[in-house]
């Protein structure tokens, strides 16, 4: 059986690994997932990630999770907003800060995948992929 939403699977793997206090988590690779992880690294929610080839042409992402000095996870909440069955789009006018700018929306725009802060600076809206706090 094929998976219909591989992005939601990656977000769930991250959420479950953080709740289990794991340092690393693996997920199947794609360019879209790598772009989302770039945003998470840039915003300080994830420490880093590395893409490596498992078999011929099959790549996997190894994600290093980030915790506070007290051992608390940096990601309190990570949820998929736009799903394959229900796409959610926001214009620049409707794009408001998430959790008083303590959290972010990750948005797919015509200029690439970026955080809501960056999208507001560039004046673009787009599909809301997920929200992170």
UniProtKB/TrEMBL annotation:
GO terms for cellular component: cytoplasm; ribonucleoprotein complex; ribosome. One of its GO terms (biological process) is translation. Keywords: Ribonucleoprotein, Ribosomal protein, RNA-binding, rRNA-binding. One of the primary rRNA binding proteins, it binds directly to 16S rRNA central domain where it helps coordinate assembly of the platform of the 30S subunit. It comes from the Bacteria. It comes from Orientia tsutsugamushi. Pfam families: Ribosomal_S8 (PF00410). GO terms for molecular function: rRNA binding; structural constituent of ribosome. Belongs to the universal ribosomal protein uS8 family. Part of the 30S ribosomal subunit. Contacts proteins S5 and S12. Transmembrane segments: none annotated. This is Small ribosomal subunit protein uS8. The keyword Electron transport does not apply. NCBIfam families: PRK00136.1 (NF001109).
């Amino acid at each position: 059986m094929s998976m219909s939403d591989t992005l939601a699977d990656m977000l769930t793997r991250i959420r479950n690994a953080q709740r289990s206090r794991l340092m690393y988590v693996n997920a199947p690779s794609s360019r879209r997932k790598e772009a989302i992880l770039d945003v998470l690294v840039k915003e300080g929610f994830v420490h880093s990630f590395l893409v490596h080839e498992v078999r011929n042409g099959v790549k996997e992402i190894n994600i290093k999770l980030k915790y506070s000095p007290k051992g608390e996870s940096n990601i309190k909440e990570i949820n998929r907003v736009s799903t394959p069955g229900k796409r959610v789009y926001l214009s620049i006018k409707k794009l408001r800060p998430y959790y008083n700018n303590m959290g972010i929306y990750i948005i797919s725009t015509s200029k690439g995948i970026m955080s809501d802060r960056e999208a507001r600076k560039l004046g673009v809206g787009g599909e809301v992929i997920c929200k992170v706090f």
